[in-house]
Amino acid sequence: ALPGESIKSLFEWNPETDEVTRVFQDATVDPGRRFSHRGHLIAVETEANYPEVHMIDSNHEVAGILGAIMKSFPNYGIGNVSFADDFKKVVFSVYSGAEPSKAYLFDRATGKVQLIAKALSQMDRSGLVETEAVTIKARDGVPLHGYITFPKTGERLNPLVIIPHGGPRARDYWGFDSETQVLAHHGYMVMKVNFRGSDGYGLDFMHMGDGEWGRKTQFDIIDSVRWAIAQGYADPERVAIVGASFGGYSALQSPILEPDLFKAAVGYVGVYSLPMLYTKGDIGGNTGNYRFQRGGSIYLDETLGVDKAEQLRQSPVANVSRLKAPVLIVHGKDDDRAPIEHAELLMKVMDEAGKPYETLIRDKEGHGFFSEDNRKDYYTLLVRFLNKHLG
Phi/psi at 234 (nearest 5 deg)? Predict the structure, then answer.
């Protein structure tokens, strides 16, 4: 982004003349993936809601190829695209909320398109459901972009699971998500929202989350739940929150702020003490570039605010007395990003407050479960836990 601007732009630089020309800027969202040929920019993709491809050089042969793919697959996003030197044959992939990825061979001479591969080919696709993009207004009028997935049972009065993403300087995208499909298969509506503090929607929106981890960012999550209830999509008596990393923090902090709204909370490899981020794990000592900003304690000071007392006030471990929702704590013992000490401290204060909880703690797992057996155990327990408290 140029000085004084929030949304990032794409620029073309001529090293011979040192001339810099802006070639693309969106009004809402930062530019994403680029499509190019031999260093020549053809198109750029953005995703405020659904992925959109914007042509930069509409006269180029590749622009015609992209246009043909979009016309043939109007309800899909474009994945990888590669072409022969003469552009006569093209291999490309497409995806959607209900499709992990399908790869095709496009023979431009004959106009024929042939399916050549499917990601997760062993999976039964008949039970998968689509994901829809939505825009929601937060209580202070800030627009929030998110995604909802309905179970096959319909769109009315569903048990709702909201899943805040990690980061918080990250974002959710439209497309296939295995956790979403698992929950939808078991009858749950799933909702995700790019709350303030997420990246991709400009620097102003990202910095709206600074110092607000436990307040305005959580209000965005809470307001999204209330929106789903107001639309008649979600049953107000059957709402759960599930999240990993920063999402795990939110999974505890949102029910602390709104104890009567959430009937179950699942913190997965979560952060539960904000001051502990400085002393445990790899963030505090990381001096590299972290989400386009300076890293380490500088990053933490920027995103959390420097008031240590306020950091503690916005920490779940300091507020578990307000919790009413049953809690499931899931963690790996070798987590370097959110070390096991976060989960251990949360369990300690929950014990002291007399709050019940369940756990799934596994050896040799880091910031997320990667063992197939452990992932299976997690999803089995997750569905059982949600059925028990929302069923």
Answer: -115, 140
